[in-house]
Design a protein that fits this description.
Order of helices and strands: EEEEHEEEEHEHEHEHEEEHEHEE
CATH topology of the largest domain: Rossmann fold
CATH superfamily of the largest domain: Vaccinia Virus protein VP39
Shape: globular
Number of domains: 2
Strand order of the largest sheet: 1-16-17-15-12-9-10-11
Number of strands: 17
Mean pLDDT: 94
CATH class of the largest domain: Alpha Beta
CATH architecture of the largest domain: 3-Layer(aba) Sandwich
Helix content: 25-40%
Number of helices: 7
Low-confidence stretches: none
Amino acid sequence: MNTFSNGWSDYELIDAGNGKKLERFGEIILIRPEIQAHFPPELSAKEWLQRAHFEFVEFGKNKGEWKALKRFSLSHKWQISFKNLVFNLELTQFKHVGIFPEQVTNWEFIQSHLSGTSTFLNLFAYTGAASLVARSTGAFVTHVDAMKQLVTWSKENMLSSQLDNIRWLVDDALKFAQREVKRERKYDGIIMDPPAFGLGAKGERWLLDQKLPELLDCASKILSEKGFLIVNTYSPKVDVKTLEKLAKTHFQKDKISVTELWMKSTTGKKLYYGNLLRVQR
């Protein structure tokens, strides 16, 4: 079973293929590398270049530079909207722009399951889209990310969206969750989008397949009686069966849904964006 995310007025996956994807963020159209686009695109290379404003050209693993494809000047920073929220985007040296559009299916889920009395925890929170969505329902939101510059970016998104009172924490997500277990805190909604691999602030090695059991154990202990958990994984060592087995170990009495997350382009191409776990109590 697959879960498909749809675009919205300010985002469109136009086409994909030959290791790239063509996307529209507001008025800006980008070409970015995409390892899952291992098939021919629907549109020609000429059409891609005619449409796009910038293309990310890689010269190292996840590093490269943006090449302007239009003669007229366009800002490297701009804004897009999702419903009543505003996200500040930027062309970064890591090919990212500050938002993961495939997460829209989770934003909609969050909006439909929280209220003004709910508590919500966003771990590995990136630039805070899920935090803003949760806060827009009136929920009390705690936002945790280990990178200070990403928390700063998130705060800018909050101010642009005319929201306030989000609890910001620059912290290791797993260590914070472990402390919340000791403090016996409970959350009505939890979302986490942990990286597949990486290095911590002190150079410690992070591998999702090794850390995921600890993350799920913590989540099971801080999730409220009628709460929900959303986990996104993008690791070759954590497939749907592995994710489902781990979830059933830690959430034995709860409703569990494990699917692959996909998006379909305007031209009909399908892209895989990892695996999605949802738990409801």
